[in-house]
From TrEMBL:
Name of the protein described by the UniProt record: 5-formyltetrahydrofolate cyclo-ligase
EC numbers, comma separated: 6.3.3.2
Catalytic activity: (6S)-5-formyl-5,6,7,8-tetrahydrofolate + ATP = (6R)-5,10-methenyltetrahydrofolate + ADP + phosphate
Pfam families tied to this protein: 5-FTHF_cyc-lig
Keywords carried by this UniProt record: ATP-binding, Ligase, Magnesium, Metal-binding, Nucleotide-binding
Database matches in PANTHER family: 5-FORMYLTETRAHYDROFOLATE CYCLO-LIGASE (PTHR23407:SF1), ATPASE INHIBITOR/5-FORMYLTETRAHYDROFOLATE CYCLO-LIGASE (PTHR23407)
Binding site for ATP: 7-11, 132-140
Gene Ontology biological process terms, A to Z: folic acid-containing compound biosynthetic process; tetrahydrofolate interconversion
Amino acid sequence: MTDAPSKAALRAEALARRAQVTEPQARAFAARLAETGADFAAAHGAKIASAFWAIKDEVATLPLLERLAARGIATALPVMQGFRKPLEFRLWAPGSPLAEAKWGIMEPVLAPEVFPDLLFVPVAGFDRAGNRLGYGAGFYDRTLARLRQRQEIVAVGIAYAAQEFAAIPAEPYDEKLDYVLTDREWITCG
Ligand SMILES: Nc1nc2c(c(=O)[nH]1)N(C=O)[C@@H](CNc1ccc(C(=O)N[C@@H](CCC(=O)O)C(=O)O)cc1)CN2
Ligand SMILES: Nc1ncnc2c1ncn2[C@@H]1O[C@H](COP(=O)(O)OP(=O)(O)OP(=O)(O)O)[C@@H](O)[C@H]1O
């Protein structure tokens, strides 16, 4: 399966816009993400929150993970199980061991699998209906579908405001975001 051209074109445009973000903007967003993300997690009563190990031009997530852990919320990172398989999540707190996986992504080792009730999700492009574009491997669609079958979860997309599009074409298997946190606003999708 390959993407419809429009989805691939939107992804390329979204990533090009993200690549233009300056250092000060990136630092400010990382701080905002940590504060707003941890406040939301606490207000929501989250027990286990997952984030991701930032790669490419993704905003730094360590400050968020540190703040969540300081609030007593268990923190987890995704672990890839192979192509076309949902991600698993393993407990990880800042300072715990990591091993390098594909694409330079660091993953927890020897930590128990957990099922997060709050997920901070990497986003290439998004719209206000909660449609999400990732890097195109379909990992999070499969992952969110699997978790939603099991329990109620909240998915918060993390993106710069510049990564917003009026409408992203949705496929039947696309799993929607509940919220998107940008460097400018907190968006309730739907
Ligand atoms: N930081 C982070 N971690 C994450 C994700 C993510 O989007 N960001 N994922 C979200 O699902 C999963 C990994 N998904 C990824 C999918 C593709 C590529 C990637 O770099 N792809 C190449 C092209 C693919 C290829 O090698 O043929 C590329 O974009 O250059 C990276 C991560 C799990 N962990
Ligand atoms: N639940 C599913 N069942 C079958 N195929 C799926 C499912 N979810 C995703 N896919 C496949 O994954 C491919 C990529 O999907 P999509 O473009 O939505 O990924 P993405 O959300 O951008 O990537 P990622 O979640 O890894 O960041 C699709 O072309 C589709 O074939």
